[in-house]
Amino acid sequence: METAVSTIQIAEVLNQLGVSQENQGTSTGINWLSSSNYIDSISPVDGQLIGKVSTTSKEDYELVMKTATEAFKTWRLMPAPQRGEIVRQFGEKLREKKEALGALVSYEMGKSYQEGLGEVQEMIDICDFAVGLSRQLHGFTMHSERPGHRMYEQYHPLGVVGIISAFNFPVAVWSWNTALAWICGDVCVWKPSEKTPLCGVACQNIIAEVLKENNLPEGISCLINGDYQVGEYMTKDSRIPLVSATGSTRMGKIVAQEVAGRLGRSLLELGGNNAIIVTPDADIKMTVIGAVFGAVGTCGQRCTSTRRLIIHESIYDQVKNAVVDAYQQLRIGNPLDEANHVGPLIDTDAVAMYNNALTQVVEEGGQIIVEGGVLSGDGYESGCYVKPAIAEAKPEFKIVQHETFAPVLYLLKYAGDVENAIEIQNNVAQGLSSAIMTNNLREAERFLSHAGSDCGIANVNIGTSGAEIGGAFGGEKETGGGRESGSDAWKVYMRRQTNTINYTTELPLAQGIKFDL
Ligand code: NAD
To answer: What is the pTM of this model?
Structure first.
């Protein structure tokens, strides 16, 4: 099988994005720092080395922080709508580079080209959202208890925002954070996943061009690269008031403690264990599309991927057969070939975790009903292509309680009322995305009520994956409690200040306290 992106084509993609194949990785905005240590970026699509990215030393990090801190002094003084104009220009550049960046996302991370384009579209959408928001960073006014006094609350920029991101959304998560942080007057230092470093370089080039064209300080957007140790530079750094970290719950627990230890703020977007409840009133056709896309899209590597189908016993066999049938039609292969539905896992470590999950579910008493397995041979040389698998399981199995970041779907049966399904759904440590398939209004409303789903996202007649940027995104419990993207998520990137102004010649004290001199 011939790969859709040949070495020559990827060279062209990198060229369009201004990414050289070596020695980029630490950027103080416009300027790149050189270093002698590298991370290799290996494509899971064909196992080829795409390029090398230099890692950030502690000394380079200090330079980055100096530039960012300096830039903040200028950036925070620029009126928010003018900052919005810079974000608008960034969105325009993304529109120009959408195909190239989408192809790089697909080739470096392994998601389908369509999903790569979708990720860049999400970046464009959040830019548009942030531009409008730049004129709406409003506080409140309230009545003072003292005569001749005025009271109000306003929001100010925080400073340097640190962003740590995961491999599975190598560009969008950064933009959810930066687009909002920038209009709020913050500057950003980003450490992308060490598994997708070239996506980071490409994004940095795009914003650096905008900053340069507008004669703005380079440190408004900085890039650092490396593994968790480079991430730790930021979590331990009290010059960074907010660390936004996206990744595993394991990582989030460490980051949360580190940042809390210095009384900084963290915004955590961690693992999910998302379920779709299928009730007797579900539209089966819609259920199958939602469940299959949710389970195998991005090869099961979305934080919102569907991992559990909780099906009522009366329709269990019907739903099971329909989903199993749909799996027979899946085409697995190069994600840049648009005929394929499922691309590779990110690396062979992920393949090992997928294999372990399949072994464990059987050990715990589950039954595999769609066989998994690692593909080999022509077109599968990277060793990262696996068959999406389905297992019948019990909700309490340890492996079902765990987020396996791979295309393994567990079928769980429930009896009786929808409450029983909601209890199964909520009875996991994670709380990101959830869905119910039903045409029964009572069931839908119970699912959405305060006694319903305990997740940050709860959908009716839509699967668990694929959120729009307009709503706040994030989850509860071990998912970390953070909210990013739409709605009022911008407030996390600002500090809040209450102001009271006395326009009289008296100085009355609050609560009527007397203090006469
Ligand atoms: P990961 O936790 O292995 O790594 C994520 C990032 O954290 C990387 O940049 C890594 O270098 C950094 N990191 C790891 N340990 C660190 C430490 N101690 N200090 C500072 N930085 C550290 O996650 P991954 O494998 O890249 O991504 C998959 C995970 O991310 C899944 O659990 C998925 O559910 C989650 N995710 C969540 C969301 C969300 O919005 N909730 C979105 C995307 C991904």
So the answer is: 0.97
